[in-house]
User: Fold this.
Amino acid sequence: MLFSKPILNLDFDDIEEFCKRFNENLRVEYKSSFDDSVKRKLPNVLSSFANSYGGILIIGVNAPAGVPLGPFEGVVFPEREPGLTVQNICRERISPEIPLYTSLVASRVADKAFLVVQVNESQKAPHSIENSTQVYVRTDGGTERTTLADMMRIERMLARRQEVSRRWEESYAESLSLAKAVGIAFDVPHLELRLGPQYPSEVVITRDEVSQFLSDHNRRQRVGFLQQEVLRHPEGAFLARHESSVRYFNVSEIGTVHYLEPLEFVPQKNLGSPDATNFWWITASILRIIAVVADLMNTHGITCDLRIEAKFVNIAGIPFSTGPSMYNLEIRSAVFPIIPSSLIHPTETLSSCAREITVELLYQLRWPLGGYSTNRDVIARIVAENYANG
Assistant:
């Protein structure tokens, strides 16, 4: 979610940094106490997160008018396990039950702590309370950030239960068809990146906005398309480069981004070694695409959890140079035609966590190749070098 680490690993410094960074908004709420009044409101707040874009509730932070006010000291929880209390309240009063995660984080003040509650956007929305008579969603206005949903929104949520997985796959199936139509080759080894809302169910960016975004010269240059014309299609716009290196970049109205790039093979310095693709070359491509997608989401105010996928396609038997440096050119071949990787990450921290995201994707892609044991620390150093070099 909004933290850069699992909430079970949080410490006081993480809480303090979070409070200084985020005011209350669509995905963040604070409570200064854990009294009966707060407990009564928990189903409203937490179900509204599940029905909207997911979010974080931190109990133990004073936030008048939605702005966290230091010093951050936490509160005394009379319950031995306040997280279990939250789970029991939600289990009894929210239907269907929402998946939530809790963590009790010790304060620097003796006997005080913070309770962090994380709720993800739910594919089972709408989640109702009060014997299934009320459905709450988030709002970005005023001090009260939960509001009753109207029937149209509830109907959209019900429809989304059935459409989410289908919409994601349909979006990329349409994009692949478009790529084939403009001459992108699919029978060669290539890298494919797919990024988009975890639950794509409605338009989040208009076709005109997509076209305008991709028409910006600096953005085209950043993703590797210099003077290419922005081409339009019924659901957005795309770029296709047909020069020495064929590339494809597509953005749709529902916020899905699709990137294709062929793998390059070069002679190796070691005598007798076959031509191979340097595994680490894709680092720069992943970093570039993450940066552009972060810009896209920020420019158009899109806040949600992103599903991020990277995969190698048509690589069975293809040699990769997988050593951690040019002086350790271990050659490994893939056994399977496709190697996938994926993770979920919030839009709000996409840019600041670009290196961490890239490390995890590369680790998942590197692991099936076997051979030299490249751990996350080694990958992190390689990614840091590519990040520093732009």
